UniProtKB/TrEMBL annotation:
This is DUF397 domain-containing protein. InterPro entries: DUF397. Residues 11-66 form the DUF397 domain. It comes from Actinacidiphila reveromycinica. Residues 1-24 are annotated as: Disordered.
Length: 73
């Protein structure tokens, strides 16, 4: 099944709450208000591409991050 890309031209992007952390250049932005998907983009390149994830996949990712399931080196 082929899906067309959502129109993100009027998306209201918001930065990660960690944007003011020790490395403010490693941030993402997400857009709310898209049924069933979560658009994500690099805050350093707002005109660049955005990735879209299913809401379930995004929620699983956020839960894993909050649970510290991605240890840093």
């Amino acid at each position: 099944m082929s899906r067309s890309a959502p129109d993100l031209s009027k998306a209201a992007w918001r930065k990660s709450s960690y944007s003011d952390g020790p490395d403010p250049n490693s941030c993402i932005e997400v857009a709310d208000g898209f049924a069933g998907i979560v658009p994500v983009r690099d805050s350093k390149d707002p005109q660049g591409p955005a990735l879209t994830f299913t809401a379930d996949a995004w929620n699983a990712f956020v839960t894993s991050v909050r649970g510290n399931e991605f240890p840093t080196a």
